[in-house]
Amino acid sequence: MAKDQRDLVELLKTELDFIEKGGYGRSVKTPWRPTSSFRDSLTCVNYALPEKSHPCSECHLIDFVPRDKQDEEVPCHSIPLNASGDTVESLERNEPKLEAALKEWMREKIREIEAERAKKSA
């Protein structure tokens, strides 16, 4: 299956910047509709599409989803964000805690991927 051709580190940096600028606050266009972490951002291969046109298996984030959760409706919401196993799904009712966990998870993944790339190019 075709994989998202965008660079993962750039996606994570863009997502982190989006969150740090208040990205998942209520939409001005649809303030009654709650936003969905990852799904309502440029990170998602289905961003701004009215229907889920691309399978989640094409997304870079699928590699972080536990195998037994990869067939769920929104598998990226099952990514373990910390050592406690918190996920977007488990934290979605606690926005400040979710935001903090997402930011830390992205910073950690960016560091890991950049370190791995540096090792390969050395």
Features:
122 residues; mainly alpha; 36% helix
Can you give a write-up of this model?
The protein has 122 residues and is mainly α. The protein has one domain (8-121). Helices cover 36% and strands 0% of the residues. It has three helices and no strands. The protein has helices at 8-20, 88-91, 95-121. Helix 1 (8-20) runs antiparallel to helix 3. The longest helix is centred in the C-terminal third of the chain and has 27 residues, at 95-121. It is globular, with a radius of gyration of 14 Å. 21% of the residues are buried.
Brief characterization of the structure:
With 122 residues, this protein is mainly alpha-helical.
Protein structure class? mainly alpha
Structural domains: how many? 1
Beta strand %: under 5%
Question: Helical residue percent?
Answer: 25-40%
What summary fits the major beta sheet?
A: none
Strand/helix succession = HHH
Mean pLDDT: 86
Q: How many strand elements?
A: 0
| Cα radius of gyration in angstroms | 14 Å
Poorly predicted segments: none
Total helix count?
3
Terminal residue distance: 31 Å
Approximate shape: globular
Secondary structure elements and their pairing?
Elements lengths: L7 H13 L67 H4 L3 H27 L1
Helix pairs in contact: 1-3
